[in-house]
Design brief:
alpha/beta; Dihydrodipicolinate Reductase, domain 2; Alpha-Beta Plaits; 11-stranded mixed beta sheet; 6-stranded parallel beta sheet; 17 strands; binds L-homoserine; HDH; NADP; NAD(P)-bd_dom_sf; threonine biosynthesis; amino-acid biosynthesis
Length: 436
């Protein structure tokens, strides 16, 4: 049965994503109405620059007063695609107070202060959906929240930032250095003029916080996520990974501790074996590998950014929220009942690939091995290659050590002690090894 009174949608933001949301709402209006059971009406569009021409949008709907729009009282769903912490947070909580449900793509806000938003949604009996906040078009949060609600997720391992995956893929496939690959990503429009959020891992860390919270039914904030970007990754690291049958990816890793009593969330570059499904994720694509107790291993793959792909996720949420609205119900809210503490990086158990420049003389290997033993870190493989020193006389070597799994604190303590050895000229690179 089609209800004739339309559901009113307020759009906050009309940039790359918002304009695509408006376009799809118009071009697919009949299908969306049939799927929801009522037509959608775009009731207002809040923007910063009202004079900009916005094709397909009635100019009468444009306003710069987002607060008045969310306070109208007749809005069914507010779609927030402006990003950032404020004014987005106040607009969303005001929308709940005035009777609307909310669809948001705002990963930064959800990772920083999701608790405030969830509490406001619950207090007012409204929906807060945010599939587009993590990995763009890829259906991921709904499967975690709903399809896997009966299972126990133990690990989420993902490539959740397209820009950095593009850079690392270029470094791997063409031998380009970091700066050259970043320039290419910028020229192609993947990297922004200020690429800090992507290359320093902030964007991926926000997504890791959201994923960990949903996967483990607990609350994880951006500050809980250990974060390292990829600006230090060199061509030599990539070549070294290749020699080990690995590639380098910027990974978001969320894990439940072996004893089940805590969780961790981290973002850093890591070597993964070429045989791992994430190794074949090329260009700016995203992919997330989920390990659940009963389901086993699942992989979600697709475009993680861009106007239309992100709008697809927003529209999916909009349909779901509107269906709930018509049924006078709400979908699942925040599930944080486990209240598991988030452990620090020091407690994460992982493997290191360490590349050292050492003196090539008797006893050096034994000295290095002793440092590992003193820190209770077991060595898996050692590869040494002699090379000439700066005067061409030899007597130096590159030593590549790959460890077995050990707490990160023990591994970083080992590296600190290695740096103090006279025979260690320098630590050329350190990278974690994951996905085995
Ligand atoms: N800048 C992000 C990326 C997309 O490169 O994947 C938005 O999260």
């Amino acid at each position: 049965m089609m209800r004739t009174r339309p559901l009113k949608v307020a759009l906050l933001g009309c940039g790359v994503v918002g304009s695509e949301v408006a376009r799809i709402m118009t071009t697919h209006a009949d299908d969306l109405a049939a799927r929801i059971g009522a037509p959608l009406e775009l009731a207002g569009v809040a923007v910063r620059r009202p004079s900009k021409v916005r094709e397909g949008i009635d100019p009468a709907l444009i306003t710069t007063d987002a607060t008045a729009l969310v306070k109208r009282g007749d809005i069914d769903v507010v779609v927030e695609v402006i990003g950032g912490i404020e004014p987005a947070r106040t607009l969303i909580t005001t929308a709940f107070e005035h009777g609307a449900s909310v669809v948001s793509a705002n990963k930064a806000l959800l990772a920083e202060d999701g608790a405030t938003l969830f509490a406001a949604a619950e207090k007012h009996g409204k929906d807060l959906y945010y599939e587009a906040a993590v990995a763009g078009a890829i259906p991921l949060l709904r499967p975690l929240r709903e399809s896997l609600a009966g299972d126990k997720v133990n690990r989420v391992l993902g490539i959740v930032n397209g820009t950095t995956n593009f850079i690392l893929d270029r470094m791997d496939s063409s031998g380009a250095g970091y700066s050259e690959a970043l320039d290419e990503a910028t020229a192609l429009g993947y990297a922004e003029a200020d690429p800090t959020a992507d290359v320093e891992g902030f964007d991926a860390a926000a997504k890791a916080a959201i994923l960990a919270g949903i996967a483990f039914h607990t609350r994880v904030r951006l500050d809980d996520v250990h974060r390292e970007g990829l600006t230090e990754v060199t061509s030599a690291d990539i070549a070294s990974a290749r020699r080990m049958g690995c590639t380098v990816k910027l990974l978001a890793i969320c894990e439940r501790a072996a004893d089940g009593k805590s969780v961790t969330a981290r973002v850093h570059p890591a070597m993964i074996p070429l045989s791992h499904p994430l190794a074949s994720v090329r260009e700016a694509y995203n992919a997330v590998f989920v390990e659940a107790e009963a389901a086993g291993q699942l992989m979600f793959y697709g475009p993680g950014a861009g106007g239309a792909p992100t709008a697809s996720a927003v529209l999916g949420d909009l349909v779901a929220v509107c269906r709930n609205r018509l049924g006078e119900s709400t979908g699942p809210g925040e599930s944080a009942y486990t209240r598991l503490p988030v452990s620090s990086m020091a407690e994460v158990v992982t493997r290191y690939h360490i590349s050292l420049d050492v003196a090539d003389k008797p006893g050096v290997l034994a000295q290095v091995a002793t440092v590992f033993a003193e820190h209770d870190v077991s060595i898996d493989t050692v590869r040494q290659q002699g090379r000439l020193d700066s005067e061409g006389l030899g007597g130096e070597a590159s030593l590549v050590v790959v460890t077995h799994r050990a707490p990160d604190a023990a591994l970083s303590g080992t590296v600190e002690a290695l740096r103090k050895l006279d025979t260690v000229r320098g630590v050329a690179s350190i990278m974690r090894v994951e996905g085995e």
